[in-house]
Every structure is written in structure tokens, then in C-alpha cells.
Amino acid sequence: xxxxxxxxxxxxxxxSGVVKILREKKKLLSEKIGIEISVKKIADKDISAKRNxxxxxxxxxxxxxxxxxxPQIDIVVELIGGINPAKDFIxxxxxxxxxVVTANKALLAQDGKELFALARDCNKNIYFEASVGAGIPIIxxxxxxxxxxxxxxxxxxxxxxxxxxLSQMSDNNYTFQKALAEAQAKGFAEKDPTLDIEGIDSAxxxxxxxxxxFGRFVDLKDIFLEGISNVSLDDINYAKELxxxxxxxxxxxxxxxxxxxxxxxxxxxxxxxxxQVTGVNNAIHVxxxxxxxxxxxxxxxxxxxxxxxxVADIVDLTQDLKAGLFRPxxxxxxxxxxxxxxxxxxxxxxxxxxxxxxxxxxxLAKIAGILAKxxxxxxxxxxxxxxxxxxxxxVMVIHGAKEKDLRAALNMIDKMSVIKxxxxxxxxxxx
Amino acid sequence: xxxxxxxxxxxxxxxSGVVKILREKKKLLSEKIGIEISVKKIADKDISAKRNxxxxxxxxxxxxxxxxxxPQIDIVVELIGGINPAKDFIxxxxxxxxxVVTANKALLAQDGKELFALARDCNKNIYFEASVGAGIPIIxxxxxxxxxxxxxxxxxxxxxxxxxxLSQMSDNNYTFQKALAEAQAKGFAEKDPTLDIEGIDSAxxxxxxxxxxFGRFVDLKDIFLEGISNVSLDDINYAKELxxxxxxxxxxxxxxxxxxxxxxxxxxxxxxxxxQVTGVNNAIHVxxxxxxxxxxxxxxxxxxxxxxxxVADIVDLTQDLKAGLFRPxxxxxxxxxxxxxxxxxxxxxxxxxxxxxxxxxxxLAKIAGILAKxxxxxxxxxxxxxxxxxxxxxVMVIHGAKEKDLRAALNMIDKMSVIKxxxxxxxxxxx
Lengths: 431, 431
Hints:
CATH superfamily of the largest domain in chain A: NAD(P)-binding Rossmann-like Domain
CATH class of the largest domain in chain A: Alpha Beta
Oligomer: homodimer
Largest interface: A-B, 59 and 59 residues
Number of helices of chain A: 14
Strand content of chain A: 25-35%
């Protein structure tokens, strides 16, 4: 049986999972593909660390160079994450004539364009299924399964940590701080949770989905980004009374000639499948011209789910290597109708708004007056009774309004003496 | 640019969609794959029928033979459906050295084993993405994206017509007959709706999913089959009061050494994503050892969604043909732990039960007594008040019980004079 040889760079959680799967599923995989996949070298800067898998010490090396320079290694699996030295390793692997599998969304979001072009020049491929939605085969679906489709939008819950925190707040009435602390204790959140809770990880993944659906790489700095650290338990509960859940959504939408790309907490109606996605799960919704509205759901993190995707990528590559040919991954083609990015103040949306007001007559009239002058139309309003409270919340849903007009109106409203805290506005997504 | 030549057999709804996509997406596809796909011949027994697409009359032929015998045609797309002559056409195509794309679930469910073996012998492939879930790329996901996984179960809503009918009953309080008539008027149901509403179409698709997940073909006659024609509006409403929707589920589950394969109306809790799948949509849930619990959702029917999948299959084949090589589709490997099929009377499940009783004292005690003797434990009970009614419904949810024990108990109960109609039992799925 033909043998394909793999080298790993990075022997952490996902790397150990990959080795475990290649070992335990050896028979299954060779029966399916008619090829034996063998791991020849594993590089990690700490080769003495205790891991939940034992490997022959001859496989281990502290130098990535040993993997990159080994002429017998066909596929380099990069799992160290981060920009450097991962980028350098991938470049060297391609130049040495090796195919690459990676889960590195941060790197591909930043330098994917350059790396994919280099791979083409080298007649090699970079596969990256594990970089979005862990074991959910979303990249294969967008690239191959939906190959004939043009896309109107792609959006979803792309970060398991944030979704876990929001779910605990919604289901168990936890504050953000308590839910975060619990997520950290359970290992779902890092000690420094910034990347996850501020939406950066979601944005990295969104850049890759946007590339696959619309054929262009968007810069992280051009994505409107709002995390979940300011989502209050009150807003979650008021939203629920109105029939919504609050989710951190990553959204890319085609709007005429522009592409609207953003990450922020969003009210999603209870009747939408995304509102039912709880815990560390992810879900990606795509709207396509032929296959219609699709949703892909599953765990967004986990050793074996990410490793499942890495192994699927390795198998895809072995199929080509077996035949000794280069079959380039399908190009994402730039949608010619899109000529620019949409600025956040251009978007039109429905909004949930919470005003914190002093408990005195005429407050609602003043707020409604300013909104009316700005041509912003109120869909529903609830004044929350808080006994003995000095500050009373007024919760509104407003009909479709331009972000720019809404922001201007809120600025005026927030200057009134009856407004006791900065008003909160959260976008609503109902498609 | 290299050219791959396609011939169609069957120029109905999906066939017209395929031609439309290959024409309108010509530029997109050739940019993605670097190959031009051209349709050389289209066979249909009625070539004079009016269609929503115009084709050069030179392309059309009334004889499938013209497609099968054309040495320039690389891929034969079979879209006539049914067993004969479709099976004969596919066999001849393979023997003539052509790859095959088909959406024919009835044929593959019956003769897939034979046809896939023949394809292997001929060094050709049969692709069939459109046969389950239309444009949802579920077959590619199971075969390639989840290649390293073993599966515990696969189940879902596989028939859009039935789901449309059940949704209209649940959302708009329609009777089954009214919902069916509406579905027929809208073109979602055939004049003879048997295949859809009696679960046969779902079973065909389930056979294919079972093959992909567990590596074995199950005979249609070995699948326990119950359609939706006996689902009453009352049961839908009572289930809703208990927090469930009724869905027609197709289920394949590994239970120790056996495989449990069945299609029947099922109570699904509101909190499960499947309960939110309405209208003609489909959704497939898989439980895998590595990637976890996944769900794939989208329209289960429609000209362009099915054609989207057919074109994706054609593109997959062109990738191999371009390189002039045979890359066989990945084998489904028989799960060695499974040695037999599970009989319906062996299964254990929770159940919803509705008894129709005479309105007199002691009825509930009699029913509960028989259940207790059979070791069947009641989780909840509601006696519905019906003013002036002679017959009173008693609705129960029972804890996990063996189907065999439950059937025996219901037989005894139904013989009592206080029971006025055959009791209704519907299985509950909560995973």
C-alpha cells in the first residue's frame, strides 16, 4: 500500500489529537483511501511536556527545521498558531515542495492572500478546514459542495467561548463576569480572553468565510468589531421578553455594490435556528442563489473535533499525492458586483435600544420626539417598572433605520439631563 | 482550456436546472476549475415539451442511446428517476467508460450496492449528492469532511413534502387533508403523494445515509416505516402543549451490535434544532465520535437546489478527468461492531400516548393499572376536558419503555370497554 508521510509542527492539544486519530483510525482510513498515512516527525519547542498520548521519542524534535527539511515528508501540518514563526514555517514548507495543512485562522486572515498565491506558484495546496467551526466541514461545503453558487450573505456564531458565556447568562441568569470566570475555570476561555470575547477570533474566521463566499480578503481593521464584554444581563433578559436571544454574530453581506462585514452582539429571533445554538457550539448560515438558505451546526472547539478536520484535510491531500498530481483547490472568484466595503454608518438595521432615564413625567415624550425628528420609527416600547429606583429603563425596538441617523439621535438623547447612562443600542438580525 | 463533455438523460425540472446553471455560471465555473464544462447531448422521451429554458435543437434527442454511445461524452447525468430504465442506462454508461451523476435515491437505495461495485470494476465513479437533501452537501460532508469519524447515529427530516404538511398543521391549525391539498396545489406534493407522506422517500434517503455512516446497505423491507397520514391535528396540538413538535424523522442508530433503522412521526422537543425546521426544509443530524453532534440544514427540494448538487458532482468529476486519472470515491467501511438489524419491538423509547376514553370515573385508574403491571412508568398525564363530549382524551408521556412491552399493554388497554378508539402512541426522540 502506498504511504504518505506527514510531519507535524506543534504538538499541543490539536496536534496530539491528530496523532491520536491517525493512530487509532489507521485501519479505517487505509480501508477508505487505500493509502497508509504515517507520521514521521513531530516538532515542538517543548518536547518533554506531559501529553495524553505517548509517541516514540525518535519522532520528536525541538526543531521545526527537522520537519521542513525532511525530503520524505509530503505534508506539513502547522498547529502552533500565531503569526510568527508559523508564517515562516509555512512559506518554507511550500518552497520545499510540501503541501500544508493548518488550523491557523489568525495567520490566514492576515496573510492568506500572500500564502495562497505562494502555494499556487509552488504547485502545492494549503488546506485549512479546522480554522473555522472545528469539525464542521464548512470550508469544503462552501468551496466544493456549493461550487456553482453565488452568495448573498454568510453569517453565524463563530466563537464557542463567547457563545458559552452568552448562553450561561441567558439560561442561568449569570452576569458576564460570572459566566466568564466559569468558562475560564472549565477551560473554555483563556486566562486572557480578549481574542474571544472582543470578537477578534470571530473576525479572523469571518475573513476566511468572506474570502470563500465573495472571493476577497478583507483587512481586520476594516471590520466593524464589537465584543460581548458590554452585554448586560438586563439586556439579555429584556431581549428574551421581546422574543430574542443575544448572540455574537459575525456577518458578511452583499449590499448592492458593497460588502458589509462586521462582528457584534446581535438580537436573533427565537424562531431562527441560530437562537437555539447554545454552549460552545458554532453555526454558520449561508444564503446562496441556487441551494438557498443553509445552516451548518456543530461544536466550535475541542481537541478531537478540530483534529477531525485536520485529518480530513490530510486525507484530501493524500488522494492527490497518491496519483502524483497537483490538483489545486478551487479558486474563490471575486464577485464582480462588489466594488467596495460598506461602512458601519451606512448600514440599515432594526435595533433594540435601552435608555436609562430618571423616573419623572415626560421622559418618554422627549425621547420619542427626538427619534421622530430623525425619522426613526418605534416598533415597540416598554417602560420597565423598578420600584423605588431612581433610574428607570425604557426598552425600545425600532424599525429599520440608518446606523448614522440612529447614532446622531442617540447622541442628542444622551445629552438630555433625564438620561442617566449612555444608551445601549444592539442590532437585530432577522433574515 | 480543457473541455469536459456532459450528456444528460432526463430533461425535466432538475435537468433543465442543470443546463441553466452550466450555462449561466459558465464563467464562474471555468474560473474556479480551469475547465470548460459543455453539454453535448440531452435525451428525453418528450423532446417537444415546453421548458423554461431554450436549448439548441441539435442537442436534443429522444434516445438515451445517443448519449450513452457518444464517445466524446465523459459524464452521464441520469435524471429520469425510478428503477427502470434508469438502472440500465447507468450500467451501460459505466460499461462504456463514463462517469455517472444521478439524483436517483429510489434506484440507489435498491441497487446501490450492485451499481457502486460495478462502477469500481469499471474504474469509474457514481456521484449522487442531489439524492439526499437537494443542495445541502451532506454526502460530501459524511464521506470526505468527516472521513475519520465513526458514527453513533444519523437522523433527520429528509422529506420536504411531509415537513411542509406537518408545519402547516402545527402553525396554522390545518387538518392533514387540508395541508395535503394545499401542498398539492402549490406543487410541493404529487397528485399521488404516497411516496412522500408514507415515509418511503425518507426511507430511500435514509438507506443512503446509513450506507455512508455505517458502510452497509439496508433493504427497504427491513426498515420500520410509518408515514404521517395518521397524524392528527389533536396530537400536534397536545404535543405542543407538552413542549414538542411532531416531525417525520428518518433514524439510523447504532445500538451495541445492532443497527436500528426506522422512519416514523416523532415528538421532538422545542429546544432541539430539528423542531425549528419548518416548511419544505430538510435537516440531517449526525452524532460522530470526533466531530461531535452536527446538523446540516437547508431546502430539501427545488429545481436549482437539486441542480446545484448535480453541478457540484460534475465539477468533482471534472477535477479527476482533467488529470486523466481515476480517483475512486472514498469507500464507506462497514462498522465491524454491527452484526445485525434491530427489530422495532426491541427498541426502547419514551412515548407520547393518547387514549380516547368514555367519560366515567375510574378510567385513568384502569389504564394506569395495566401500565404499572407492564412495568411502564408514567412521566406525565393530562386528562383533557371536553364539555358535553362522550369521549375524553387522556394524554400521557411515558418514560423509557420497550416497544414490545408498550404494544402489549396498549393491546390490553384497547380491549377495555371504556376505550372508545384505538390508542395512539408516538415515539419521542430527545438526543
